[in-house]
């Protein structure tokens, strides 16, 4: 085991000396070295049901994850990594029913369409739809829980968007 701890760093050093470029990240990001900027356009809420905080929460969270997890600098528009999109679904439905047909849990679901443009590699650009949800007790009104649920759901969405755009998976 002790030899292994010595051999791995030595092997990495030798690969680097031979001109092999090694990129790793603790955030899961695999961003090309020549990418310098990112931009996030405002995500309007075009769903039938609208929450007043959802658009700004979504937009801000996407900016935040790239600011925290990458070395990219945010620009207003035209970034090397550019994001545009819209919220297309915001619904609350019954998620679980008791044996006597009473709702036990409700589910708040949010769906966003995202257009990602990778200016440096057009083949890595995409249009995708992302959906995430959280369940809540059916004895509570949506208006009582949405201020807590929206940030949790948005966190799932932006993590998925981040992984789809900044990782090779």
**Terminal-residue CA separation:** 31 Å
Label the structural class: alpha/beta
The helicity comes to 25-40%
Q: Which residue ranges are poorly predicted, with pLDDT under 50 across at least 5 consecutive positions?
A: 2-8, 10-18, 20-27
Q: What is the beta-strand fraction?
A: 25-35%
The main sheet comes to:
5 strands, mixed
Total helix count? 3
Q: Tell me the series of helices and strands, N- to C-terminal.
A: HEHEEEEH
The value of Rg in angstroms is 21 Å
How many β strands by DSSP? 5
Query: What sort of overall outline do the alpha carbons produce when their principal axes are compared?
Result: elongated
The spatial strand order of the largest sheet comes to 2-1-3-4-5
Could you report the average pLDDT, rounded to the nearest whole number? 86
């Amino acid at each position: 085991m002790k030899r292994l701890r010595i051999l791995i760093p030595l092997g990495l050093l030798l690969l680097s000396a031979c001109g092999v470029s090694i990129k790793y990240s603790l955030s899961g990001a695999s961003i090309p070295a020549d990418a310098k900027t990112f931009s996030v356009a405002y995500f309007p809420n075009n769903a039938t049901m609208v929450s007043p905080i959802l658009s700004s929460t979504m937009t801000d969270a996407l900016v935040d994850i790239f600011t925290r997890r990458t070395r990219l600098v945010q620009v207003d528009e035209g970034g090397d990594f550019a994001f545009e999109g819209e919220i297309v679904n915001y619904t609350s439905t019954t998620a679980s029913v008791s044996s006597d047909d009473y709702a036990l849990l409700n589910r708040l679901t949010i769906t966003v369409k995202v257009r990602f443009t990778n200016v440096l590699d057009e083949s890595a650009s995409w249009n995708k739809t992302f959906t995430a949800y959280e369940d809540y007790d059916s004895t509570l009104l949506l208006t009582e829980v949405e201020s807590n649920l929206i940030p949790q759901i948005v966190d799932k969405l932006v993590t998925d968007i981040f992984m789809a755009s900044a990782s090779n998976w």
